[in-house]
Amino acid sequence: MDVDKRTLQRFGREIARTRKMADVTQDALARELGVSPSHISNIERGYRSPVASFVPKLDAALQVDGRLVRLWGELTGSGRPAWLAEVATLIREASAVMDYQNAVLPGLLQTESYARELITAGTPWASSDDVAVAVDERMRRAQEFVNAEEPLLWVVLDQTIIQRKFVPEAVRREQLDQIVRLVESERISVQVVATHYLGHPGLTGPFKVITPGSGADVVYAESIHEGQVITAAQDVARYRLLFGRLQAVALGPAESLLMIRRELDDD
Predict the structure, then answer these.
(1) Is the pTM for the entire model greater than 0.90?
(2) What is the C-alpha separation between 128 and 4, in angstroms, rounded?
(3) Residues 5, 42: contact at Cβ < 8 Å?
(4) Phi, psi of 214 (to 5 degrees)
(5) Among 34, 51, 76, where does a domain finish?
(6) Cα–Cα distance between 47 and 37 in angstroms, integer?
């Protein structure tokens, strides 16, 4: 199994943390498992991928009741639950991202006011302090994106996102102005799928195809409950095909920009 470096590093850190909490040295763990201390060291530092049969042995030696086995399965399996911090790191270190949205604008493109409206409405149980923290974090990532040259970002949006007035009008106008500025500065490419298009290929929900600086593409697919990281080559290829289909049925970048400008002019 080919496992990316970040996954190996995350798993290795957890092994090291678990071993230290159990007050077990690398030498002692190596003797228990019949391997060299350097082998354990290389796995903990993310330099070496453990073979599948070795993970249950690690788990048993450290007496953690299957926790390491479950973590390894989550980290290496396609369709596993996504950690938001992990997705943010994937995007920040990517060379390109293809992003399809059918309800709201991508977080990297949101203004502070727009983000606050969405987070407040979407998490009515959150305190004002929690909302403020979430908005600040989103804005930090958005500003990092605007200031950087990568990743390249291709966005396909459903037209309803541009037209629907689900935030105060001043917030909506500020947000559309932000999109226009980013497109005109050539920081992003935006295409809009018109509402009248029949057989819409994006009805399955929003997703991102993330192309890292090195290694294979990864998909982040969103649902109402959670996001999933998809790494299986066949599944990723299908999402790339789906994004290509969305681009094909959408208005071109110039026409899409004109549509957004007209939306601003008509208000």
Answers:
(1) no
(2) 38
(3) no
(4) -145, 150
(5) 76
(6) 14
Query: Of all helices (H) and strands (E), which one includes residue 155?
Result: strand 152-158
Both tokens of 251, joined, read 């208005």
**Structural domain of 27:** 5-76
CATH code for the domain in which residue 190 is found: 3.30.870
Q: 260 in helix, strand or coil?
A: helix
Verify that 72 and 103 share a domain, yes or no.
no
- Strands 218-222 vs 207-212: parallel, antiparallel or unpaired: antiparallel
Tokens of 2: 């080919």
For residue 28, the model assigns a pLDDT of: 95
**Per-residue model confidence as pLDDT tens digits over 85-122:** 678 888 988 999 999 999 999 999 999 999 999 999 98
Q: Quick one: CA torsion of 236, 198, 172, 92, rounded to 10 degrees?
A: 10
Please tell me the distance from the alpha carbon of residue 116 to that of residue 142, in angstroms, as a whole number: 13
**What pairing do the DSSP bridges indicate for beta strands 188-193 and 207-212?**
unpaired
Cβ neighbours for 232, distance < 8 A, ≥ 6 positions apart:
78, 79
Structure tokens at 153: 């970002």
Q: Which residues of the chain fall short of a pLDDT of 50?
A: none
Residue type, 129: D
Task: Calculate helix-pair angle for 5-21, 37-44, nearest 10 degrees.
Answer: 120
Residue carrying the six token digits 């290496």: 76
CATH number where 16 lies: 1.10.260.40
